[in-house]
Amino acid sequence: MKKTLLCALALTLALGTALPGAAALTRGPAAGKTVKVGVIADVTGSGAVYGTMQKNAYDLANDDVKTGIIDAGGASLSFDVEDAASDPAQVVNLMQKFTTDGSTPLVLGPTLSGEAFRAFPIAKAANFPVMGTSTTAEGVTAIGPTVFRDSLAESQAIPPTVARVQQTWHAKTVAIIYGDDNAFTKTDGDLFAREFQKTGASVVDTETFHIGDKDFGPALTKIASKKPDAIAIGGLFPEATQIIAQAGKLGIKAHMVGGNGLNSTQMYQTAGPASVGVVVGAAWYIGGKYTGNLEFVQRFKAKYGTTPDQFAAQAYAAAQVVASLVKAGAVTKDAMLAGLRNVRVVQTVLGPIAFDQNRDVKAAPVVLKIVKGGFAYF
Amino acid sequence: MLAQQLVNGLFLGAVYALFAVGYTLVFGVLDILNLAHAAIYMIAAFTAYSLVAHGLPIGVAFVGGVILAGVVGILLDRIAFAPLRRRNAGTLVPLISSIGAAIIIGAIARGIYGIDERHFVEGGIDSPPIHLGPVTFTAVEALIFATAIVLMLVLSYVLRATTLGRNIRAVSQDRIAAALLGVNIERTIAATFFIASALGGAAGILTGLEYNSVSIDMAGSIELKGLAVIILGGMGSITGAVIGGFVIGAVETFAVAYGLSEWRDALTFGVMFVILVARPAGIFGARALRNA
Amino acid sequence: MTFFVQFYAQHSRLLDEIGINALLALSLSVSLQAGQLALAQAGFAGIAAYVSAIASMQYHWPLFASILLAVACSTLVAALLAYPVRRLRGIFLAIATVGFGEIVRVIVNNLSITGGAEGLSGIPNDVNTGIIYGSLAVVAIALFGLARTKFALAVALTREDEAAARGVGVDTGLVRFASLALGGAIAGLAGALYAHAFYFLAPADFGFPRMEEILVWCVIGGVTSPIGAVAGAAFLSILPEIIRGLADFREITNGIILLVVILFAPSGLSVLWRARRATVPRDA
């Protein structure tokens, strides 16, 4: 009798833990508590292309917490996205609001690195934990001991990518084209030049562009005249797609490589066949078999009609990290901070996430190439 | 390579010129700097995109977008400028009004289309490169260039040889005298806005086709450039705007060609500044509206 | 009492922004009162911001010295700019000064001492709300004092009718020069304070969108009224936070408010309260 009961119990437990997506499956120390996490994102304004993706990811995360796909240990966790409208003043006001009104134990965002340099010192002064999901400039996490980042920095992404492509391409000459009025793209340009030179290639031409430029005829004409083996693009996808498409139109045949900023399916959608073969040093692979990633992509596409890009994935991963901390019982800012400092590994759509002693994410870039309709491993 | 850069400059300049022509027409007739012109440029491109997305051929979509732009221009005048005209509010106030209108148009576009870039043709417009000696371009690019030129020639004809054109020139020279001579001022102004906005819209659609990309931040990139162009050419001069467009296109192209790409905007505005200081009337002088 | 302490703890940044924006609005108002549509104040502020930041960070100058240096630089640039644009009027002056602002932005973007596109981060945060409002008070008192002098009369005459002003012996050239230089000084002060209050500078901080913003503040508040300029700056700085609840409709609400105010009160909101006092109608 006891044995049957025990067997039944064991069976129920086994079934219970095996059933995916069952709500309130685990009840952690925070069960029943309401936790709202503040997010600062540029849903409108110049950063809207990235901020909207982030907002969409957080809204999806809210759904997923409710259905149990994201396990918050029974807590009522939600992500409250506030639009900073790409206005530095609003970013600052929101950061002050979040760090003083007690509404949230942690702040995620803002979208742009420049905004982070303005807002994170406020968090530092308030000893408040913050996590950037897209602010990849140099020195962001160095702002203070409460600043974390789950997005791969350019300095982490570019060197391994260049080493990898050179193993296959052995390019002797390279041209660099990068955006000169944006911190992200400029860093990329500098890094590409340095890393290619380390592999023995020489930089035969350097061209710059401005964010918002559409016409790259003059720059590409010059590059074409130098006939480089490879072209490195320090840019974000709105400009990168034009560069690649126009290079195709001019008949340029060099290998092309870019950083994180090109990790969007917009690349093929805008530039078409000209973009096939372009290599991207990315922080996330849309087809990567990380825990729950493929399902995430499907749910995102079902909800919004477009596939997620890297910005969305990094935001969603941050949500997953936060959920795991909440599940372990962190509902106050101090507990959140302690949790972030001691977190081992969290399985996310980006793969396993852990933070190094500089509070940057411990990860390597995944080197991809553009194929028809998407990406594949390089 | 020089020949190719020249062609690059011409193509770029043609669309700048088309955009600037609308800007300068409104200024010449009304002394108003319409900062919503760039927003109309953008919304016309989106309209054409929508029409194409619904299966209409590009020619029809182009005409549709241009007409919509013209209509928006008339509405813009009715709502944002005409009331101020009646109150004699000067030149600064309509400028602010146009800023408000631009924000509203931008917000509507964002509401309808979102922040994503839209494409006329997914995967790129298939237009094989044409090689003409040292120069390479695509058929689509050539068509866009030709369309811009044709539109400007049409404008020039309208201004020179039609009654409407005559009325527009009269109103721009002396509104009171024109009224005394029997010109219907409000109707002429409405027509001016229609034409100016239609041309601005055409520039937007052509730009969208050129790069196979339509997005709400199109407006921001061209706004200031248009100013430089019309100053260069002389505010109120159509010919000036056209020449100005090509000059700025050339300045930008050759700045890149000679390794000064980071200084491109400074050069453009530097040229504009020098013209303003040395010859405020621009290359083609005077605030009177000239025929092309 | 605790209410105020808490309010300040949660909104001190917004208060700082309002103070600095008020200074920027005043710097433009000074030009507008002289009838000059000189849209270079954002550029002046940017120059001063970078000068004061670099002075503190690279050369370890104390705060007040770096602010003084910054204001001196921006005033000097304004004075130098006054010469080439002396014969420009109306929209032409506006566009020339906008062009100047863009040239400044590009220069700042391309130099390495300014941090270029990456910007300047880690600027010491040694300006607090007290210093900002203290500076605003000093400038306000100074302008108030100036308003009672004959110079102010010369300025008003130049604005209303330049030829007539010259006819009665006003040195309009001097008026225009002085107003631009004064605008440069006030904008410079705003820029230097901004740098030391917000940790980070980027070239885009003082570009054309910023200048547009300042212009809108002044026109909404009242083109020829310094109080109007400050009120306009305060109102429009707080607006995004007040209508935050409108989420997706914030942007269009912004545009509608702008349009409605300008159509119903083209002379600015300040005229509305002035009209209640005076019996003689004055269109500003």
What percentage of the residues of chain C does DSSP assign to strands (E)? under 5%
First-last Cα distance of chain A: 60 Å
Q: Oligomerization state of this entry?
A: heterotrimer
Strand order of the largest sheet of chain A: 7-6-8-9-10-13-14
> Most extensive chain contact?
B-C, 42 and 42 residues
Q: What percent of residues of chain A are in strands?
A: 15-25%
Please bin the fraction of helical residues of chain A: 40-55%
Task: Please provide a brief summary of the model.
Chain B is mostly helical.
Task: Give a description of the structure.
The complex is a heterotrimer of chains A (378), B (292) and C (284). Chain A has two domains: 30-152 and 288-353, 3-Layer(aba) Sandwich (Rossmann fold); 155-282, 3-Layer(aba) Sandwich (Rossmann fold), CATH 3.40.50.2300. The longest helix of chain A has 20 residues, at 48-67. Mean pLDDT of chain A is 90; it is low at 14-24. Helix content of chain A is 43%, strand content 18%. Chain A is an alpha/beta fold. In chain B, 58% of the residues are buried. In chain B, strand 1 and strand 2 (135-138) form a beta hairpin. By secondary structure, chain B is mainly alpha-helical. Chain B has one domain (2-114, 134-278): ABC transporter involved in vitamin B12 uptake, BtuC (Orthogonal Bundle). Chain C has a two-stranded antiparallel sheet. The longest helix of chain C has 32 residues, at 2-33. The interface between B and C is large, with 42 and 42 residues.
Summary tags:
heterotrimer; A: Rossmann fold; Rossmann fold; seven-stranded mixed β-sheet; five-stranded parallel β-sheet; 14 strands; about 45% helix; B: about 290 residues; mainly alpha; two-stranded antiparallel ribbon; 11 helices; globular; disordered C terminus
List the helices and strands and how they pair.
The complex is a heterotrimer of chains A (378), B (292) and C (284).
Chain A: H1 2-18, E1 34-41, H2 48-67, E2 76-83, H3 88-100, E3 107-108, H4 113-125, E4 130-132, E5 147-149, H5 154-169, E6 173-179, H6 183-198, E7 202-209, H7 217-226, E8 230-234, H8 237-249, E9 255-258, H9 266-271, E10 279-282, H10 293-304, H11 310-327, H12 333-342, E11 346-348, E12 351-353, E13 366-371, E14 374-377
Parallel strand pairs in A: 1-2, 1-3, 3-4, 4-5, 6-7, 6-8, 8-9, 9-10
Antiparallel strand pairs in A: 10-13, 11-12, 13-14
Helix pairs in contact in A: 2-11, 3-4, 5-6
Chain B: H1 2-30, H2 37-53, H3 58-86, H4 92-113, E1 129-132, E2 135-138, H5 139-161, H6 163-173, H7 175-180, H8 185-211, H9 218-233, H10 238-257, H11 264-278
Antiparallel strand pairs in B: 1-2
Chain C: H1 2-33, H2 41-57, H3 63-82, H4 90-110, E1 120-121, H5 129-146, H6 150-160, H7 162-167, H8 172-197, E2 200-201, H9 208-221, H10 226-242, H11 250-264, H12 269-277
Antiparallel strand pairs in C: 1-2
Helix pairs in contact in C: 1-5, 1-8, 1-9, 1-10, 2-3, 2-4, 2-8, 3-8, 5-8, 6-8, 9-10
